[in-house]
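Weekly sync notes, structure subgroup
Attendees: PM, AL, DS (notes)

Item 1: joint prediction request from the bench team. They want all two components modeled as one assembly rather than separately. Inputs as received:
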Amino acid sequence: MYELGVEQINCNGKLIDLPSLEVVRPAPKMPSDANIDWLLHIYFTRREFTRCRRLIERELNRHLNPEYLYFVQGLIDREEGNNIDALRHLQKSVELNPRNIETYKEIGRTLYLMGRFGQALGVFREAEQRSSIKDHEIYHYLGELLYRAATTQTLSELARQQQDESRSYFELAVQTGRKQESYVRLAELYRKDKQYQKAIEVLENCLHLTPENSEVLIEISVLYLKINETQKAHDRLAEVVSIERKCSPKGLLAFGAILQSRNDVDGALSKYSQIANAEPEIAELWNNIGLCFFKKQKFIVAISSLRKSVWLSPLNYNALYNLSLIYIASEQYASAFHTLAAAINLRKDNAECYMLLGLCLRKLDDMENAFVALERASSMSVGLQGGGRNPLVVLNFALFCYETGRLAMATEQYNRFMSQAQDLLLPTEYKFQATKLKSLLRISSQGNGILLDPLDSEESDLGHSRTTDLPPDELPLEVNAVVSQK
Amino acid sequence: MVGAPNWLHVETEDDSPQITTLSSCITLSDVQRDGYVRLLAADISLDETSQEPSATLKVFRGLKLKQEQTLPGIPAAIASLYIDESEPKTPVIAVAIAESVLFYRNLKPYFKYTIPALDSEELEQEVWRKLPVVKTESYPALLDSLKDIEHAKLSRKSQRLLQLSEEEREGFIATHKDSPVGRVGNIVAMCCLKRISSDSNPPSHLVLATDTGLVLILEPQGFNLVYEGRTCSHETAVPSMISVQGTFEADFCIVVATRNGGVYLLRKSHSEGQEVFKLGSPLTGLLLLPIDQTIIASSMDNRYVCYSKRGKLLYQVALPAPPVCILPLPLTHLGLTLVAIALKGGMVKFYLQRYQVDEFALEETVDAMLYGRMGMEDHVLTLVTQSGQIVVKILRRVSRFEPRPEDLGNRRPGGDQNAIADASILDKPKKSSIFVEQAAREKKQAKATYGSFQVELWRVRHTAARATIDAINSSESTISGDLTHAPVKLSAEVCGSGPAFRLYLTVQNLSTFKMASNLVVLLHADRRHYAIQQTLARLPSVLPGVPLRVDFEVVAVLDSMDKLPPATLNPDNSQIRVMLMKAGQAKPLIAAVVAMPQSEAAY
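Output from the run, pasted for the record:
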């Protein structure tokens, strides 16, 4: 007797289990779960955040592996500026899958955005250890964070160490990945260490990846300027100009500076005028414009340009120095005195500046102070070694001593000038004045202090013949560093 | 763009259908084999909170809905392909849902292919062998051991089991004990790859990318996998988009974009992807262009970039709004391929390489785009907007797309440099007549100007010195008179016979309850007479009733020759001024004078 659907039958007085049909029945499958992580990702990239949030909210209850849901929620929170929630959600995602390096990176990035650099560094270091592959993004961030730590570090030794470590991470990043940012940073670090050649190499490599990148090209040309390869810098900049109609102000400024250093004042001015239209408030720009007009002997325009530069950046030593030089050239000694005083207050170690101050005071009939200033200039210039010393300082002091009747001192300074000037190629102007002084000294030592006509032409001429020359570690874009007429 | 627009708008009836879809979920197909190409779209309904997310496959003739078919899940992509050479050629519709691809022929279900499961970890299989036979009490221990495995690598049934409450577990295990333990990936992207290159609808293979990082090529006649690749060597790269070029028989390339912004390239010969480039933000669109084999991508940070296959950035264009989707437009009659980019806000831009050649704006953001032969017309662009509107545009036959000459202009080396130079005149700072006059005056009267400046400078210094003296004298006493602070008393004694003295100062707080804090003691003496090592001391807070004693070393200056004090020192000026000041206050609280005894000569 068999009834349908019964699993036991009575057969010969015994209850027998019917063989189960489960063998043939397919094993029950898991319901095909609607994993729509991919859809969530698409909406996230389209910045449809409200839709994403709705999706996440619904999915969280039923999703088998909500790791990605939390991840996206964290990213959305971050995009909306809610960093604390972002961290919380990313943290949940990490708890679900501690091996997902991407989540670590996002946590680190969030901390970075929040300005918690120390914590971010810790997270990236952990990510580096956990990561099975060489991840250039981790390296880049580690480098970035260490670099930042180095700049804020007060102990110089530790800072040095961090900077070196940072550089080695950027080097790793460049080896394993090909991100322009890493290259640019690495070059920046090399540049900081004054390894210009290496910085150029790095940027040239970067250029292979992103040809026609004007930022990199400009950076390279500026570096070429640093190592005085003006021609190469010029070529690079010309390339930039041909790629982009609108070259960035930085590039134009460098281009103008090169032209200016080649005495193409009009060319330089045309470059500067382009910048001035777009972004007129750059102190260095007006400094250079002022010097261009100075070269054209248009003093009034030069002074007003330089005054604009000083007005834009009152603590710019170079602009102050140049302005005072032009004031002296245009015989406005009182203004020159104030400008020089401001410059000297900024940097007390420049012999030329004191020399100009001395000359200026002499013109203002303050002989006592003029003597003090010139004496200090001369003693500073003696203290300097090699390239930094300028025989002009000593020559001017000698002339001044002679003029005020300090004959012995004049002779001493004259001898010092001669010893300094021996192996230098000096303008004939200097030589002429020196021989004149020599003969005068000889006469006066014989003729017992006969006062001769004061060398009036001297100082103002000097004002013209010297334009500017500053130690080459100045900002590259200022003409002071590139224009040197000597 | 001047003149007539390049795209003709197709007027539609007011009651045109509404669909929500993605670019990957719409396609064109001659499903009925009548030469009239129909629009197929998967309509995804997500937003109604009342019901589960679901999707339907819809077939439109023109814009008229003709057929509907409910799908068992949300499709990642649909595609129309021919699977064999047999005549008459019948297109097959492939719909990728979760781990399977459903094939429809003549709009009837025809085959379901499920991608093979990945082997799961030994440990998980062991656990599932034990679970049905052990007692309920030992479940927690077994389940804990599952947590050692990365959660994402567990099979679905284990994932579910871990989520269940303890009561539900036994039943769940009983139902699922026999099902295979395996991890199945979800298909996240799909596209077609022609087997051979031919104009007349050659049979195609399907390229599938799963969220486990696999890239598979399915041959849809015998349903075999003919190619298995990995996106990259590490696990975390989950594909989000793929794009394919080439033919299966000859050579092909597959580019895969991951959710993190990486782009990987797989070749026929290389089944493991190599990183081509990695963007800092996720991609919204990816294309492998057929002609010059460049990779086009649009990213979340509003950029449209083009890389070579070797990872060289060829150009990038900044977009005015976030890109939503991109679409290639192969214009075979012109021999070009344009790239259409839909931006958030409704703008659609067309690029020929880096140059924008056309654009138009719709009222709202375009969610999905499709281009190709539709109906009887050859060049039809279908756009689906966010609210579900379908907009159809037809390319004018006479349209030509050329970069604007001014965009091209600056590419010519050195051509128009002079024009730039002349374009702008330097805006020099104004020089007023007063300025010039002042300059002239200064030239003449520099000395007088300088002289009066010096005089005034001295006058200022003089005034300042006088004010200082006044301030000191006015507070000359030993008890502070300022009522706003706690009253303080200062007393001093000098020990020693010289030339080294020790000056002891006692500061006493006379108040009963106020604390005297932020006090500073300053000693002031004539430098020619006394040398003081430390002239300034910051005091700790002085509590009422507890005097504070500080001491300073003072050395009388003696002539090194005759061991006598300098001649200028007389009993009237042999004194040290002690000032007690409060930080942040210019006037001292107490200024007292300590008379110094005459110094013994030092031997």
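Discussion: The radius of gyration of chain B is 44 Å.
Action: AL to compare against the crosslinking data before next sync.
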